[in-house]
Here is the input.
Amino acid sequence: MADDDKVTPEVKAKKKEVKPSEQTIDFATMEMLEKAKRDNVETIFDRAQTMKPCNIGEQGTCCKNCSQGPCRLPLPKKGIEGEDTRKGLCGATPETIAARNFARMVAAGAAAHSDHGRGVAEVFLAAARKETDDYRIKDTEKLLEVADLFEVPTKVKEGDELVDRDHNEIAVEVGEKALAEWGRQEGEIYYAKRAPQATYDMWKEQDIIPRGIDREVVEILHRTHMGVDQDYRNIVKQCSRAALADGWAGSMIATDLQDIMFGTPYPVHGEINLGVLKADHVNIIVHGHEPLLSEMIVVAAQDPEMIDYAKQKGAHGIVLAGMCCTANEILVRHGMPIAGNYLQQELAIITGAVDAMVVDVQCIMENIANVAECYHTKIITTTPRAKIESGDTIHIEFDEHYALEDAKRIVKTAIDNYPNRSAEVMIPSQKELMVAGFSTEAIEYHLGGTFRGSFVPLNDNIINGRIRGIGGVVGCNNARTMHDSDHLIVVKELLKNDVIVLTTGCNAMACGKAGLLTPEAAKVYCGPGLREVCETVGIPPVLHMGSCVDNSRILTAATAVVKDGGLGDSIADLPAAGAAPEWMSEKAISIGQYFVASGVYTLFGVTLPVSGAPRFQKYLFEELEDIYGGKWDMVADPYEMARKMIAHIDKKRAALGIDKARERVLMDMDDRRALEAG
Ligand code: NFS
Ligand code: SF4
Here is the structure.
């Protein structure tokens, strides 16, 4: 056989050309993939066909933590017969190697979220100290709540009387204490006490309460260095500390301080999918994660001066749309449109209508720079932490002390680029309406209906069985699996079975594009119990809680449910489960670990790099449940994933003694149907 006849993956891929309809279930995405082909532009969807993942890395058993490696320990084809004798040069077992790799993913994920949080805390402090005019304290009610959590006094003594303390004074102290959580070396992060008492007690017993955010991340890097921690159980323990430092500190502080500065989200209407772009407008996409910059671009893009300038250049106005979690941030606070989720970032540019894509950090594919070269789109990087070497990107560094000025410069650059459109403009017509902005406060308010609000009505409906349980479905898109498909199958299966869904991140956007984020969706997709509750309260059956750092809102919501009573003492007692059907980011691993360590059964789709280390995998998938009440799982089939989540919810209902209630509800339904039929 001649060399070029060899069946390489590339040759195989050419033989079997994959159709867009096999790569995504989203019509706008299909249309743009067709256009990409016509325009001869390569995207991640193409590379996913021609490059296959390495099976050893996929199993989690490739170690390159020192230069004696990489030591590669794939599972033998026939499986392991007898004793597992695989070892790296230093003797590291597959368990040690896979656990170390896993831990480094937790560290990177926790670092990403937490560094975002640190940036927010710095700007918060600058705003409180009045070093910038562009940011201010907006939600004073939340400021006072957060002050309590940081043990910052909100009242002062004046003579014999206690009077309210000045808000800015409080904010300065909150900012200082928040920022100090990163460098804290001992004791416990403040927010640990925010968890239900029983959850906190479990952490204490397991000795996994984070001491400080940076410390736990650094300790993972130390422990996973060659020749340090060589017991996978001990490595997992440190994973829990770092991940809890993400969920209950780095991310949670980010969420709280963003709420105080930009407003706590309450339900707003918005639109989603590539159809939000307009051919005759200047289209600016803000892509990435931190709302610090995008909040200012929202202001700049609405400035009459800027709109006039756009008109001078021949456009009818300015469209500002988001991509990835930046999109979620500006949606939940301002109702700004979303252009799409992670796998649509290149495709937005392929419309030919994007005049600038402004990026900050995380989930930004380097290839957008190459795609942009085929069109007129300007890629603008904005943070010193993230530049792009490929293509022809420009860097306009964003300084929070001159935030609005910088934002205006960016918007102006986009407007100036509008007359340069070169390629055919083709914007898919797809866009959907949605309601988003369900912060924990908003859910409480909506359910309780009173000034204080409460989760009692939700708890009651879980106890009486109308709602079977709570599913948190979150996370990314992954080019190794059909875009948005697994997300929607899992969510729809849950709804059908009366499980209410809380969502964030790219799952929220998949749900939005499919019309699940509307109150009307209750009638179409829900079982009778959930439908009744949603219709009575007027909420969508899938509640969009925000970006991925806002997974912290799922923790506070779960805590509120526990505290309002009737469903056990700890998060682990709740009839609830979490899933990330299409995950890809290291942040997802950190999120998964903090959910597990908080007591939640957490299922990941696609793949998980632990399968090459059977004992480590068993520890994550089974044994952790006895330790934390939560555990990991990996299920590639989305129907099976939903089934396992529901089975877990039913197990928890039985443990709470509320399984009978649900049987009665179901019987009522059957009876009703029998009556109707008769
Ligand atoms: Ni979350 Fe949000 Fe999307 Fe994944 Fe990326 S945008 S932070 S990491 S891909 S959900
Ligand atoms: Fe190999 Fe051990 Fe070095 Fe890893 S740390 S590369 S297993 S010798």
In short: Residues 1-5 have pLDDT under 50 and may be disordered.
